[in-house]
Amino acid sequence: MNSVPSAGVNEIELISDKSNFTRLMSFIEQNLLPLNLDSASFNQTLTACEEVIVNIINYAYNANKGMIKIIVKRTNRELEIEFIDEGVKFNPIEKEETDVSKPLEEREIGGLGILMVKKMMDGIRYEHDGQSNRLTIIKYLC
Amino acid sequence: MFQVEFLPNNQVKLWGRFTATDVPEAEKTLEQLTETTVVDMSKLDYISSAGLSVLLKVQKKLKESGKEIKLINMSSMIRELFRYVGFDKLFTIE
């Protein structure tokens, strides 16, 4: 499940738990490496994926456990990474953005993750299919 | 793998990827800082929001006593990230 096939789609599904964080990130990295992205795009994509994965692990299921599925789709022009969970319905795109102009003493710890995803990726979309949150982030490859 | 290297003259160097899993150890290490410290980021590949939160926490604590962390040798990608989240206004970046 963790290997990178020659086709343009690959996926992994694990329990949404901190103990699987490293495995999920390794899956992403293994899918990025063959793309020969420049180091900025590579690190931006890894960072964005971490933000989404951490959000799902920490918040999607509250105290319960559920699944997290990641589907990586690659075409000649773009890379799409879809994150699926069956936790609490949550559209991160609609979440009010953190005010980044506040001075140090008023800045709060946290709340930056989704903002970073939006800034570092070329596209983001969310849908809820009645059962699952499906968040897709997009990086153009050319 | 993320590492914090302590150097002479109140300097610290960050290595690798500063991810969510590194937060407990990084907090424990960086919260020991009590003086103005130069943080060399030349070997930092990326930093997630969890890592940024640690830097913010340390900066807030140091500023209370008139000290700070100063960031040097940032990659252009991390510099851009700091700008996105307004951290370029919260830290001295050289």
Give the key terms:
heterodimer, A: 142 residues, alpha+beta, 5-stranded antiparallel beta sheet, 3 helices, 26% strand, B: 94 residues, alpha/beta, 5 strands, globular
Mean pLDDT of chain A: 91
Share in helix of chain B: 25-40%
How far apart the termini of chain A lie comes to 28 Å
Number of strands of chain B: 5
Shape of chain A: globular
Structural class of chain A: alpha+beta
Question: How would you describe this structure to a colleague?
Answer:
Helices cover 30% and strands 26% of the residues of chain A. Chain A contains three helices and five strands, in the order βααββαββ. Chain A has helices at residues 21-32, 39-60, 113-120, and strands at residues 9-15, 67-74, 78-85, 123-128, 133-140. Chain B contains three helices and five strands; from the N terminus they run ββαβαβαβ. A five-stranded mixed β-sheet of chain B has the order 1-2-3-4-5, with helices on one face. The interface between A and B is medium-sized, with 29 and 26 residues.
Explain the layout of strands and helices:
The complex is a heterodimer of chains A (142) and B (94).
Chain A: E1 9-15, H1 21-32, H2 39-60, E2 67-74, E3 78-85, H3 113-120, E4 123-128, E5 133-140
Antiparallel strand pairs in A: 1-2, 2-3, 3-5, 4-5
Helix pairs in contact in A: 1-2, 2-3
Chain B: E1 3-7, E2 11-18, H1 23-30, E3 37-47, H2 49-64, E4 69-72, H3 76-84, E5 92-93
Parallel strand pairs in B: 2-3, 3-4, 4-5
Antiparallel strand pairs in B: 1-2
Helix pairs in contact in B: 1-2
